[in-house]
Amino acid sequence: MRVGLVCAHAGSSTDGPTVGTQEHIARVAAELAARGHEVRVYERRDAATQPALVELDGYRLERVPVGPPDPLPTGELVPYVAEFGRWLAGEWSGDWAPEVVHGHYWVGGLAAAHAVRATDIPVVQTFHSLGVEQLRHLGRGYAGPGQRIPLERALTRAVDVAVAQCNDEVDELTRMGLQRTSVAMVPTGVDTGYFHPDGEAAPRDQRPRILSVGGLAPGHGQDDLIRAMRLVGDAELVIAGGPPAERLAGHAEARRLRELAERAGVAERIQLVGAVPHDQMATWYRSADVVACTPHYSSAGRVSLEAMACGVPVVGYAMGGIADAVVDEVTGKLVPPGDVRTLGVTLRRMLTDNAGRFAYGHAAVDRVRCSYTWERTAAALERLYERVIGRRRPAMPVEPTPPVEVVVSERGPVEAA
């Protein structure tokens, strides 16, 4: 099977896909290639020094030369969607054309749909997050571009199947108008060869450690954890994420969190360590007694899964990918989103229950290894691709129902028959 994976962001984009999402695309590509498929990944070239073509782990990465050779915010990529699609269509008119195209993120999906609109190549789409759902959960903290939500809604009518990464996302996609048969649930995977209980742990003192991992921005839930620490007792909260440690002093959200910790009387128990390279995250997970996952929105639940793979129980908000990953009272504890008091009491009880944490940690490792490996993710996508390829038929010589074509103009999205 020939598979094209399209992500219109660039790998080095400052506000495009996170490390986790870039890893998702790369691991899916590598796993599919290992299963004997021809895989090509397409992302935007955002630096003149980047090679246009790279061979990686059995698949080909092609950087598409559209737009300026500089990192761009997501909203500024929209004017280049049509050009990106035309470039792909030109590439696929030669000796190699995909049998199925898989768009990633809404901008990548728009480019993929544009590229195949005159063909019978099916399109699978993974949004990784949905603007309408982020807006609902984050409220004023939502900072997505204005055209995102209407374009995502239009895109759902231009693809064959949308891939959801959690059950909440399945429900959201059906509320957006997709038939349930056009939504497939395929959760993200975890590298269990790297994230596992055995190995080095980051240094720590004798106090129990709670670890929080995520970007430093409103909506990631670190403020809830800081408030909850008043109920936890003598434990430290380590917050990993944001800019490098040397730039934390000038970071607005880091300053806000530190001021909040001062007002809450827990400043001496809060440690912000800044950005941690992904290849060092396992040591930080292993150093923790509990990993707290309290974002106000999370589609994949990546942090909870990585922590569980390292044998660390998770206390998290019962929403999105976290609710799917964590089995309450088996691999950790789930609490109502935003309930700071219950969060603090649950963390305190978890930290004082050594036997319970041990049992939760073992169950967590088993759950990840049974249900959340990259091999399982790739196998599920392989079956999905085969299904959509088999379902597509060449156009019949009768008047068909006009398909939805997504056209992007300066005034916003327009749907044209």
TrEMBL record:
Keywords: Glycosyltransferase, Transferase. Residues 204-355 form the Glycosyl transferase family domain. GO terms for biological process: carbohydrate derivative biosynthetic process. The keyword Zinc does not apply. It comes from the Bacteria. GO terms for molecular function: hexosyltransferase activity. Residues 20-189 form the Glycosyltransferase subfamily 4-like N-terminal domain. PANTHER family: SULFOQUINOVOSYL TRANSFERASE SQD2 (PTHR45947:SF3). This is Glycosyltransferase involved in cell wall bisynthesis. It comes from Micromonospora humi.
